[in-house]
Design goal:
Heat Shock Protein 90; single chain; binds magnesium ion; 5 strands; alpha+beta; 125 residues; binds adenosine-5'-triphosphate
């Protein structure tokens, strides 16, 4: 559960595939992505449930954070920069820096899904 002013959020972690250690840079990137996504769930979603899923898919690892909250219209990168909102930008940047990609899907009333897919062997640099 996440602490907060409102009702507690039930959080569930699921691991798919064969879990294995990963390069430290990758581990940190995925950790930070999950941390910010969960922080957003706590701050903005009004959700009662959050899910964190880590899938080991051979050459790729995929992290998915979902919530059943109110959802939102995903702003353009330019809008986020202009508004000084750095969380979603940071998520995308962290995924990119380890050679991966990121998708943010949300719809009003339908919750949010933040997903990062990264190569299991972190890209150099
Ligand atoms: N899980 C979510 N549910 C509902 N709205 C969300 C969710 N995640 C993000 N948002 C919306 O997207 C906006 C941008 O999120 P972002 O993390 O970039 O900025 P922030 O959380 O407002 O500020 P910061 O992360 O810089 O402290 C939020 O202000 C919020 O309106
Ligand atoms: Mg944020």
């Amino acid at each position: 559960m996440l602490a907060g002013d409102r009702a507690p959020i039930q959080a569930r972690l699921t691991v798919g595939g064969t879990a294995h250690r990963m390069p430290a840079t990758l581990e940190l990137a995925l950790y930070r992505i999950a941390q910010e996504a969960l922080r957003n769930v706590e701050k903005h979603a009004g959700a009662t449930r959050a899910g964190v899923r880590l899938d080991f898919k051979g050459p790729e690892i995929r992290l998915t954070v979902t919530d059943n909250g109110q959802g939102f219209e995903v702003p353009s990168l330019t809008t986020l920069v202009g508004a000084g909102r750095l969380g979603l930008l940071g998520i995308q940047e962290r995924a990119r820096l380890v050679g991966g990609r990121c998708s943010i899907r949300s719809a009003q009333g339908k919750g949010t899904r933040v997903q990062a897919t990264v190569p299991a062997a972190a890209a150099p640099g």
